[in-house]
Batch of 3 targets.
Target 1
Amino acid sequence: MVCTRKTKTLVSTCVILSGMTNIICLLYVGWVTNYIASVYVRGQEPAPDKKLEEDKGDTLKIIERLDHLENVIKQHIQEAPAKPEEAEAEPFTDSSLFAHWGQELSPEGRRMALKQFQYYGYNAYLSDRLPLDRPLPDLRPSGCRNLSFPDSLPEVSIVFIFVNEALSVLLRSIHSAMERTPQHLLKEIILVDDNSSNEELKEKLTEYVDKVNSQKPGFIKVVRHSKQEGLIRSRVSGWRAATAPVVALFDAHVEFNVGWAEPVLTRIKENRKRIISPSFDNIKYDNFEIEEYPLAAQGFDWELWCRYLNPPKAWWKLENSTAPIRSPALIGCFIVDRQYFQEIGLLDEGMEVYGGENVELGIRVWQCGGSVEVLPCSRIAHIERAHKPYTEDLTAHVRRNALRVAEVWMDEFKSHVYMAWNIPQEDSGIDIGDISARKALRKQLQCKTFRWYLVSVYPEMRMYSDIIAYGVLQNSLKTDLCLDQGPDTENVPIMYICHGMTPQNVYYTSSQQIHVGVLSPTIDDDDNRCLVDVNSRPRLIECSYAKAKRMKLHWQFSQGGPIQNRKSKRCLELQENSDLEFGYQLVLQKCSGQHWSITNVLRSLAS
């Protein structure tokens, strides 16, 4: 998690009016805090600082007095002649779209490209100018080219899910599937339109489908939703429309590489209880170049966000880069035996919109007798958008869906999901819907425990059975401030306005350690950071390092009491400092009676 902090900013905007002898400068004051920045990913809005509100009031009075003058300025700008092209290009220089592309475009071209980029999250302007059948580099391990496959393989239905996709991107996905899947294996393509408002996805797409179907009747089917159902239910819609023995469920911004299908269909033919993911490469959102990604398994963290993992040790020992990679979960796109998908329970349609369904499917398949694999010899290039412009913040949906997974499949380890999201385990206030049918499915399929899954399938995942309290940590001296990990580039904890997001997550363990920030998900990730007394200063140090160096990382703490280092006997306290943004800093000093409280207590906090 990247934590970017922005302080008060004074922006001076000078407007030069054509035909006027004076330069009129308008001053605006903006207040921006990093915890609502897009890199923060989470979405709560904190209470405003009183001093900033007072400053804001003064500034608004100034702006009010300038209202009339500003209207005059706007009128002059509208009447002024167009500026030279060099001046017009200036507003576009800040966009990431033009960091590695587009320098040769005219100002009008840049304007068009930027408008489309803001709408789609990728360079649709460039996509519209690329051929649908463009060549891709063959990024398979060299041994893949020497593999042979059975002559008799099952047919596949390829399903593309989309909402307001750029037409050229969707058509390139379809075209690459048709060109790079053997004709005798590709039975049909199914397009699931989740109620797009984009007009070109209606008439123009219909024209394309009709043209293809005039040569191959019924080859492309279009399923259109009358309302937006979200990615999860859209995938189920695509599965229901499919008729081939195998169904491939994909996003509609991908390009298939050569030889992708045969390895997948071979593995499913050998064992229909395998769910397969291809290996993914990246289509860069700005210049559409193909970026090779290293081979990886697919897993998740304790918030159930999907993530790439190093292949397991057993795979490396094979010394065979073409071998299937055992994977704990799925990133999203996958191929499955159509009938087995129904037997295993499809996707959880009680989930909302997006997020967690791929993790839930991976957990369910493993616990209920199936398996998940990533195939190095099957490669698909996928656009990773710069942003998702046409949808709301997905965090609330992912959190709700994660709690459904936790309650149905994770047994005693469901606490880890609540802790990672900083949610009370009792009376969370989040309605996860009816899960009785999913619990009945688990019982019907006679599935194994989540502990078995962690030990047998995902041993890299860290377990946190020693956490006895978690949440935000507040001091009685200033209750609107919370302990915060501070900027990632430093190891100094700070006090910051309470927002309850990841940088303010605090975990107190039975061994009297205080972890601050994200719960490290796997043993391959950086360790958790512990609060440590370093030369009488509070610091955040990797817990394993602090323990190995016998540093002062153990703290006595009881709810509503002081936080005292067991070895140095110094207390963690607040000290006024007018130079800091919120007026207080963290210090270690002789205990003066300051009290701390943490949001959620699981077991007694004995001092």
Target 2
Amino acid sequence: MQVLNIDIEGAQTASSAGRSAPKTHPKTHPETHPAPEAGLSGCAFLLGQDFGEITKTYTATLAQFATCDLTQAIPDDGHETAPQAGRLFGVFPFDRTDQGHLYRLSPKATPAQVAADEAVSHSLTRLPETQGFGASVDAVAQKINAGDGGLKKVVLARSLVYDTDAPIDPVQVALRLSADRHVTSYCVPLPGESAAPRWLVGATPELLLSKQGAAIRSHPLAGSARRQSDASADAAVGQALLTSEKDNIEHRVVVEYIHDVLTPYCRSLKVPDQPQLDRTATMWHLGTAISGVLKEADTPVLALLRDLHPTPAVAGFPLAAALAQIDAQEPFARDFYAGTLGWLDGDNNGAWHVTLRCAVIAQHSAQLFAGAGIVGASKAADEIAETRAKFGAMRLALGICERL
């Protein structure tokens, strides 16, 4: 294992050899030569109950970090009783060949939550337009039914870009999202094209991987339905999801993939035969609680993460064919949407979540993302409705309440 030699708070550019140019949106990813990345020292960082200020940033790909000895980077600054003691926090993008970041934090008191304005003045750009997203769903479902490239599932996303008159406070948005006890909220600064950083803000319901000694857990979600305000109608929606053939097929692809990736590492691996119902404040999900015992307790959590990410819950299956469809159908770069964020310690333990129900916030702009798993039985109207529902929590946290 190589010694960590990555200690960067400025710009680093991943190699683009053999890769197509990234898609951009003019309001959030200017097609101009970016200024050097600003250092993130002093920026706030929130993950669940952990809140602090960044004191150091390390930048590399997930694969590079997975082969590094990170012990020298683990903080030992006298805050032994703080939640952040002995941990690095980090975030990695959807594209595992792109660079992510690990951060050292200094603990700070979590600020008080401030309610969102009831009527935020804004403009909206849809990427793609709703009709275009529906056409992509139909096109991909047709390819799956035709057996094109062996496709079984593709996760297609769409995006909403809100430009607001007033600046958006990313920490406050994350704190509002944290009111839902079924999710893990987060607010992560990202190096930007100007002096002001971008912020990845969201509330994820999905645990990609946790490791404590030899014990590992994963709780994938795939298959979703919008919750209802009426209790009996809400229960009926949940039961319909649990018995839906289409959603169970979509979910099974993810579970089988995680089983196949983790099995070589494990002495034992427990995978329930059927999914369970998981909930957030706004959505029902099919979930499976996977647990196992590693053959080697000192296996680095980032090595497991490198092999798992991205799962079919956010990409599809087979991976290469699904990524080709995502690249062809989505008119924007996913960037850190559908990536992973979490923490690790000096004992190779950690917990990493999927970056879902999120937005990238930059001063007066918020770009929201939501995706849906497409299989052969998918219908455009259903996937449009699912993604519309998934935008709901973030839109409310921003103070945007009108119907989509």
Target 3
Amino acid sequence: MATDEEIAFIHTEEYINAVKLAGEGKLEKSIAMTYGLGTEDTPMFPNMHEASALLVGGTLTAVDAVLSGKVKHALNLGGGLHHGFRGKASGFCIYNDSSIAMKYIQKKYGLRVLYIDTDAHHGDGVQWSFYDDPNVCTISLHETGRYLFPGTGAVNERGQGNGYNYSFNVPLDAFTEDASFLDSYRTVVKEVAAYFKPDIILTQNGADAHYYDPLTHLCATMNIYREIPKLAREIANEYCDGRWIAVGGGGYDHWRVVPRAWALIWLEMNNIQNISGYLPPEWIDAWKGQAETDLPLTWEDPDNMYQPIPRKPEIEEKNALTVAKSLEIIRNNMTKSLY
């Protein structure tokens, strides 16, 4: 479990105390609301602080496992709570484990971190934690905030002060499909990694860009969840001697999407690739009695999962322009260096 001192790398003492009181049933509702607690997204519950600190501790344990040299990659599916702010809970997130972990990496190991967030919701809490810090570079690939919480993550959110041009946002249009999503992801991650040259990578792996997800409007399939960790590992091997920490995140189709998507991260970390066909029957037998919908039978999604998207060419063109805008300062600087 993370200590109060570790949590305070990011969160204020007043907020930590409020979370503790909320977990003891001692925080007045009017006061709780000022901290983002007691809302529909982040209700108060017993042992709130302890449960949240355990999630943070899992990510810090992953950090130490990698940076002590025990392993090259580490995965904490309980992490990825990227909406947590210094003094406020938001979007199901109380303590921001990724932000705490990256500050922990800076303090204990003195390394530069590349954060890659592919949750359908903008990684706002992490971005604002390091908005003026040139030693943490954040990438967020998400559905445009015009239609989706938290409404931030525009291309022009590039950082401030010394952190300017170390924050990269790619707000994708609603109904974006696999090809455009992956083209955007590969282009931005490769170019930003070459620009920043990180010492370690931390990826947030929300599984809510999938077509089945009930809270978002993207049209991805399991194909992207096979490719996202694959490129992350390639980048880690190229720049970071393999050092890669992955955490979970959003994902609200708990039966058909999240188990497969997150299993693919673990498989990639263990260099088990190209797995396809039927899912393990043991998994289906174990959960089919509890599932609220029919479980998938294969790693892949069916080809006819949804009807053709009528605006596909326009969406792809718009996303390509968004990527170009996100990377324009990097590309302009590269062009100038040639002359």
